Amino acid sequence: MTRSNPSPHAKAVTNVCWKYVPKPAISPPIQQKHLYTPIWTSAHDQCFIDALWDKAMAGCSDVDSFNNIEAIKYATTVVNLVMKEAFTVDANCDRYNKLRERYKTFSYLISQPEIHWDRWGNTMHAPTEFWQLMFERFPLVKAYEHFGELNYTALRAIFEGCVPHGARPSRRGCNNEVIDVDAIVELSSGSDDN
User: Fold this and answer.
1) Tens digit of each residue's pLDDT (9 = 90 or more) over 21-75
2) Helical (H) or strand (E) element with 155
3) Which one of 48, 66, 96, 184 is most buried, counting C-beta atoms within 10 A?
């Protein structure tokens, strides 16, 4: 991608592979069925969560400074640019609330003594009777009957401000180059001097 009149920010954009698609861990079909739609896929979800995590990390010194609406606006811009979509902030406010529900549901599940979550294998183990009871109380639990929440660490950072040492969102392009999302967002917002 070249420009005839490059701006001071052009270098950040010329190094970006615009065919980038987030590479989330493949979620099992049962989670695809309960957590995603044809319009909002696991790739959209991963990009949105990574962008929210970026904002949560930026405000991590003061948990109260994390501004949800600003983070959602930022994440919406990132998803729209990276995934070439046109989602609205309102739609992504709903998505944010669904992420919070996912986080609360999964956190509740793993706090139960009947549940064993194998973090490394990302598998869930519990008696059948326990699952039946949970399905009646929380329909979203069906997504976690066999597999855990792939983005639990990121969701915990977003909703609790709890970030494990060294944990960072990872966003890489199709040639494994690091994408400077802030530079892309800055360029898209019209801060170009030309």
Assistant:
1) 444 445 678 888 889 999 999 889 989 998 998 887 776 544 445 578 888 999 9
2) helix 152-160
3) 48
| Chain segment 154-168, per-residue pLDDT in tens | 898 888 876 655 555
Alpha helix locations (H) across 20-60? 29-35, 42-58
First to last CA, the chain: 17
Where does residue 94 rank: exposed (0-12), middle (13-18), buried (19+ CB within 10 A)? exposed
Q: Which residues make Cβ contacts (< 8 Å) with residue 33, sequence separation at least 6?
A: 143
CA distances for 55 relative to 3, 62, 79, 143, angstroms: 30, 12, 14, 27
Which pTM was predicted? 0.71
The CA distance from 98 to 193, in Å, is: 38
Q: Which of 181, 173, 175 is nearest to 22 (CA)?
A: 173
Structure tokens at 23: 């590479």
Around Cβ 92, how many Cβ atoms within 10 Å?
Answer: 25
